[in-house]
Amino acid sequence: MITVRPAHALDAREMAEILNAIIAIGGTTAMTGDIDAAYFVNRMQTAPEASAWHVAETDAGEILGFQWIAPHDGLPPEAVDIATFAKPGRQGLGIGSKLFEATRAAAARMGYAWINANIRADNAGGLAYYQSRGFEDHGRIAGYRMDDGTIVDKILKRFDLP
């Protein structure tokens, strides 16, 4: 059984391991360098009243994925950015669905009007995931240069909260 709960600093090491595995595979995230636990601890401590972090885990406590929403400089104050990561090889188990239920409720509770997803155009799985949650295209960033020099387009998707 998969359960979702708020993430905390003690989850940061496992979250970093998952994200580093995704980065190593390539093709789905704009992040290109290794992430350490301190990265997540710092992110969680930045504007905690304006962000929400969740992990999906097994009954044994193994983290299978995580999702967060946080303000982003390029968005208006009524919007929040989202990021979602599932452990490689464990996708398709309902992890993303359960995470989004918790995240959507948190975003509404926090007073946001909409959620923005910023997805690499070549990330078919990510595009399908956000589309299946009800996100709709609202923009495109052409020629985005990642830290390693790779150029990709990014699709911007929007989910309006009730």
Summary?
The protein is an alpha+beta fold. The protein has 4 helices and 7 strands; from the N terminus they run E-H-H-E-E-E-H-E-H-E-E.
SSE succession = EHHEEEHEHEE
Straight-line N-to-C gap: 29 Å
Class from helix and strand fractions:
alpha+beta
Low-confidence stretches: none
What general form does the structure show?
globular
Give the % helix. Answer: 25-40%
Strand-residue proportion: 25-35%
Radius of gyration, whole Å: 15 Å
Largest sheet descriptor: 7 strands, mixed
* Total beta-strand segments: 7
Q: Going across the major beta sheet, what is the strand order?
A: 1-2-3-4-5-7-6
Mean pLDDT: 93
Number of helices: 4
Outline the structure in words:
With 162 residues, the protein is of the alpha+beta class. It has four helices and seven strands, in the order βααβββαβαββ. The protein has a seven-stranded mixed beta sheet with strand order 1-2-3-4-5-7-6, with helices on both faces. It starts with a strand and ends with a strand. The mean pLDDT is 93.
